[in-house]
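Much of what follows relies on a compact textual record of a protein's fold. A record is reproduced here so that you can trace the correspondence yourselves:
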Amino acid sequence: MRPRTRGLLTFLTMLVLAACATEPSSPTVKLLPSLALSADSAFPAHPELQPQVTFWRNVYTTWRQNQVVLHDDRHLDIVYGVLTLPGASGDESQTADQKAFIKGHYETLKDLLRQVETKTATSIALTPSEQALANTIKNSGGGAGALFGASDRLRTQRGLRERFKRGLETSGRYDATFRKIFYEAGLPEDLAYLPHVESSFQNHAASSAGAVGMWQFMPGTARRFGMLNAAVDERRDPVAAAHGAARYLRDAHDSLGSWPLALTSYNHGVGGMRRAQDAIGNDFAAIVRGYDGPGFGFASRNFYAEFLAAREIARNPQRYFPEGVRFESPLNLDRVRLRQTVDISTLASYYDVNAWELGSLNQAWNSVAQQGRIPLPAGTMVWLPAGTITRLAQKGATAQALVLAETLTTARLR
């Protein structure tokens, strides 16, 4: 064995042992009995999923953006080590040197795991360091069988502590509104925590697959639920998108019969989860453990566990961020729904609002609508500066305004 390889194996073994010795225990969440009953019945925490929940809780609250975790992608209680990146770490990107640093450790560990697998399969004695690595795998929830194929299951995960905390702070702006939307739809209010998993409450989020906005809707799904047309893309409006998410999740739950399945469909699709049901049955933990249908990979297997972890943290922020979380103030805007088709200049004139300000408040409007080249269709939701409706009423202009639009909300959205 090369000196560098032997040194890295020793380093990783020490990290594994240190992690086992210092891993914080899962805190007990105490809720009022009525709330605990409704929450547990809607979102059961299957014991088999606890290693996944613990892993994602650590990703969100323990490991920072300058840290990268080397772990098993099936047995998430196997954490080989936590690398600290050299140099400054940006919020989203990594430098070429940092990528090379991660790649070097990843490939070396992958080779070491292959070596341990080969020696074990051929009954060749392991060195003490190799035996420690093998014991770490065997002592996981996967047992001795997890040793074989471990090299193929090696994965890296960057820490998200700072990102999750920023998401918590931003959520103060939307949480009450989102909860009201789900409550009025007859759905569990805790679905309001889903953007923590999807986007960390970043409304500018866009995936390489084409998902957009805080709720990460794909174009096809957005069109199916009436959120996307030539003038408006409601995926970029967090509140309108929350209404879309409520419609989607109601349909998914009606079709699949449970919230673990419905939430996972948010990542894998209702059709994909039906296929999983057909193959495995309704036991969600069994689906996570054994289903290997097309596209049901790491993200789909972990989606519900991520939600459970995010929900636990968001309900107990002081426990996980003892330094304090500075929540943003709730939304303080007026909102109307257009009764008729209208262009932005007419709308601005009706409500005596500068067209530029109107456009800046309504990020869901596409550029052609912002520029007045096509009108906004009837039914479009319009944000207005706080106090606009009251000001119009004081001017005696309410009757004229209501011809154009229906007032939905004034003052604070709670």
Q: What stands out?
A: The two ends are 63 Å apart (CA to CA). The chain has three domains: 3-24+62-159, 162-320, 333-409. The CA atoms of residues 317 and 325 lie 7 Å apart. The domain at 162-320 is CATH 1.10.530.10 (Lysozyme).
